[in-house]
């Protein structure tokens, strides 16, 4: 389970939910879901982009099952996620997104979906400003 940021205090309920989520992320069910997501990406990519591989939504780095993450835009269908419930991110940008979401309370007031795409846009803007 990802530890709380230094300036974030989790309630008992949050800690219980995070522990259950962490167990789900280690489960065969989650690994199978990631595989199905990657297959769906390929199917859609073949129809739209001539087979383009998944990429990090922030930096465009190649996304792979082995060394990248899928971020949950919503937990509404946890365990039965739809394709659009998940966003591909490289591990550093996934960690950066969670650091921002967990440590800047205003993002959480927007709701998870809006916050996710807002933070992704902010991270992309930061990369563009730095010339990366």
Automatic annotation (TrEMBL):
CDD domains: HNHc (cd00085). Keywords: Endonuclease, Hydrolase, Nuclease. GO terms for molecular function: endonuclease activity. It comes from the Bacteria. InterPro entries: HNH_nuc. This is HNH endonuclease. It comes from Nocardioides hankookensis.
């Amino acid at each position: 389970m990802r530890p709380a940021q230094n300036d974030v205090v989790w309630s008992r309920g949050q800690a219980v939910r995070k522990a259950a989520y962490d167990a789900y992320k280690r489960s065969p069910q989650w690994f199978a879901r990631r595989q199905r997501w990657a297959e769906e990406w390929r199917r859609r990519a073949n129809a739209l982009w001539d087979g383009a591989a998944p990429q990090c939504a922030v930096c465009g780095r190649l996304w792979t099952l082995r060394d990248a993450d899928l971020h949950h835009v919503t937990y509404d269908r946890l365990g039965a996620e739809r394709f659009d419930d998940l966003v591909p991110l490289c591990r550093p940008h996934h960690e950066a997104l969670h650091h921002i979401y967990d440590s800047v309370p205003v993002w959480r007031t927007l709701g998870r979906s809006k916050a996710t795409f807002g933070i992704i846009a902010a991270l992309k803007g930061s990369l563009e400003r730095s010339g990366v």
